[in-house]
Amino acid sequence: MHRIWGLAPRRLVVSALAMTIAACAAKQLPPPPPPPPKVVAIPPRPTPPDGAAAGLMIPPADATGLRRSVNREISPNQMLWNLRSAFNVAALNCNAPKHDGIVPAYRSFLKTYGKKLSAANKQVDTEFKKQHGARYAGPRDVYMTTVYNHFALPPTRTHFCDATMAVMRDLQGVKSAELEAFAVRSLPSVEVVFDDFYRRYAAYQADLAAWQALYKPSELQPQSAQAQIVPAG
């Protein structure tokens, strides 16, 4: 009887010791492995349309969505002279084989409508003189330089040349007395090239702003080893 009761404390001690060892063993287990690195897929950075420069300044839009232009809110005589300027720029810059007909068409235009163009030029001078006085020549030169630069915008060249060539084809058979009316309805057919380009460029600017807001380099740098940056595409 004494032996049976004497064994009980020993068994309790052994059990307690085993539990202590097991608890220590549990505390010494290695931590679980870290989660796999988070992959941030970066979509390609938006690019300007038609190979345009990234920092191009485009004209502001009015309430109707149209961009400010040297070809708007001008007299019919100025529209005719600006259309002549468009033909001139096209003859100088449209060098693709499909535009070979522009130079001879421009020469024919100057020959066929020479008197009408000269009269329109004099009327434009009168308009500038009325607005700017005796020193009108300077403002007119500045304005015409802006017109030429507008038509010569490099990203629009192909579409500009296509549109100008189409207008030249429509010019066939137009009488001299109808030339001014032809310019009034045809100059917008050239201007729409720039409206379309500015619309697409504004969309690019919006896309770029959204891209930068989400994928700024400072925000993409991993703060620990648990992030990887993987460009998409």
Structural features, described:
The protein is mainly alpha-helical. Helices cover 61% and strands 4% of the residues. The protein has eight helices and two strands, in the order H-E-H-H-H-H-H-H-H-E. Strands 1-2 form a two-stranded parallel sheet. The longest helix has 36 residues.
Q: Helix fraction?
A: 55-70%
Provide a count of the helices: 8
Low-confidence stretches: 220-233
Would you report the number of β strands? 2
Question: Structural class, from helix and strand content?
Answer: mainly alpha
> How far do the termini sit from each other?
84 Å
Average predicted confidence as pLDDT: 87
What is the chain-wise order of helices and strands? HEHHHHHHHE
Range of strand content: under 5%
SSE arrangement:
Layout: H1 2-27, E1 38-42, H2 76-93, H3 102-112, H4 114-132, H5 137-151, H6 157-170, H7 179-214, H8 217-220, E2 227-231
Parallel strand pairs: 1-2
Helix pairs in contact: 2-4, 2-5, 2-6, 2-7, 6-7
Give the gist of this structure:
With 233 residues, the chain is mostly helical. The protein has eight helices and two strands; from the N terminus they run αβαααααααβ.
Offer a few descriptive terms:
two-stranded parallel ribbon; 2 strands; disordered C terminus; 8 helices; mainly alpha; single chain; 233 residues; 4% strand
